[in-house]
Automatic annotation (TrEMBL):
Name under which the protein is recorded: Glycerol-3-phosphate dehydrogenase [NAD(P)+]
Residues binding substrate: K101, R248, N249
PANTHER family in UniProt: GLYCEROL-3-PHOSPHATE DEHYDROGENASE, GLYCEROL-3-PHOSPHATE DEHYDROGENASE [NAD(+)] 2, CHLOROPLASTIC
Function: Catalyzes the reduction of the glycolytic intermediate dihydroxyacetone phosphate (DHAP) to sn-glycerol 3-phosphate (G3P), the key precursor for phospholipid synthesis.
Binding annotation for NAD(+): G7, A8, G9, A10, F11, G12, A133, R248
Ribosomal protein listed as a keyword: no
Compartments in which it is found: Cytoplasm
Annotated binding of sn-glycerol 3-phosphate, by residue: K101, G129, S131, K184, D237, S247, R248, N249
């Protein structure tokens, strides 16, 4: 059986490499036929050029080639997932595993809700947790959460996708896993902005901790389990992303804080997700001050000094 990967960006490339090196048959789809033709020839993709694609990875730009796969890993960015699914009816029937970390701005829903909406009855799962694509592609050890509401499906996917270096922990808490992965990107932007503005590591630790409290507040209000937020997909990924210049969200924050420009072609999931999370929190009456501050920074409506002053002037309260 074949593992299909939809999206030949950095993460899709890394996952395809890991699965192929574990001896699985892999097909990697990218939307640009010329780029896929080039990748087939050079055995490298543009977004992760340092990694070589092993022989076991077959490349295609035809979505029809993914039909009937044992599982399809959806590695397109969160805001691209809804339009992608609308053009991929041939994926119905295979378990679909969302690898994007974000909340869709137009519908204010997470990736698995988008899958369920596009393909009612098709098993929808999420793969998320602390893992840089470059680390996975190098075969460095990583541990992720594989969440699916259906326990049998999550067990099946855990075994179908785990490799010696890619260790998957299963969960049925899809809401917690999705929200942890989406919101940690917002907090990484906040932490990067604090460092970029030279506010210091103590300020970053404060933002990381209060940011984690915010992630928990929203996720628990939406029915997630506290232990999921404390696990790989929440706290684990927050620690990685909000402290490492290996993260694009963190680097984007650094640029905002230092008032520098940032390459708009780089995928920065937390930028759109800050606005989506804010809309979601207002709908259910949950206060997310750091998320609101990041949304204002991203929209260019505020400076780091203003938003920090706003956060610091909030009423003093118990931790
Ligand atoms: N890069 C990393 O280290 C990790 C990334 N992720 C997540 O994986 C998701 C994808 O990120 P990356 O692969 O890193 O981004 P990337 O920027 O490297 O690649 C994105 C890919 O998606 C394609 N794409 C964009 N819009 C599309 C559309 N409408 N239809 C089809 N394909 C489209 C692009 O052509 C590109 O190949 C994000 O949600 C990210 O948070 C998760 C864990 C690690
Ligand atoms: O999700 C990631 C690591 O777990 C990758 O983070 P960035 O998207 O910020 O690069």
């Amino acid at each position: 059986m074949t593992i299909a990967v939809a999206g030949a960006g950095a993460f899709g490339t890394a996952l395809a490499i890991a699965e192929a090196l574990a001896g699985r048959e892999v097909i990697l789809w990218g939307r640009d036929p010329a780029a896929i033709e080039e990748a087939s020839r050079t055995r490298r993709t543009a977004r992760l050029p340092q990694a070589e694609l092993p022989e076991g990875v077959r490349l295609t730009s035809s979505l029809d080639d993914l039909a009937g796969a044992e599982a399809v890993l959806l590695a397109v960015p969160a805001q691209a997932l809804r339009p992608f699914l609308a053009e991929a009816p041939m994926l119905a029937g295979s378990p679909l595993v969302a690898c994007a970390k974000g909340i869709d701005l137009a519908t204010v829903t997470g990736p698995t809700a988008l899958i369920e909406d596009a393909f009612p009855g098709t098993p929808a799962a999420v793969l998320t947790g602390p893992s840089f694509a470059a680390d996975i592609a190098k075969g460095l050890p990583t541990a992720l959460t594989l969440a699916c509401a259906d326990e049998t499906c999550s067990e099946h996917l855990q075994h179908s996708l785990s490799t010696p270096n890619l260790r998957l922990y299963r969960s049925t808490d899809v809401t917690g896993a999705e929200l942890g992965g989406a919101l940690k990107n917002v907090m990484a932007i906040a932490c990067g902005a604090a460092m970029g503005a030279e506010l210091g590591e103590s300020a970053r630790a404060a933002l990381l901790t209060r940011g984690f409290a915010e992630m928990q507040r929203l996720a628990l209000a939406l029915g997630a389990r506290a232990e999921t937020l404390a696990g790989l997909s929440g706290f684990g990924d927050l620690v990685l992303t909000a402290t490492s210049p290996g993260s694009r969200n963190y680097r984007y924050g650094l640029a905002i804080g230092a008032r520098e420009t940032f390459d708009p072609s780089v995928t920065v999931e937390g930028a759109a997700t800050a606005g989506a999370a804010l809309a979601l929190s207002r709908r259910i009456g949950v206060d997310l001050p750091i998320t609101a501050a990041v949304a204002a920074l991203v929209a260019g409506e505020a400076e780091v000094s203003d938003v920090l002053a706003g956060l610091l002037s909030r009423p003093l309260k118990e931790e």
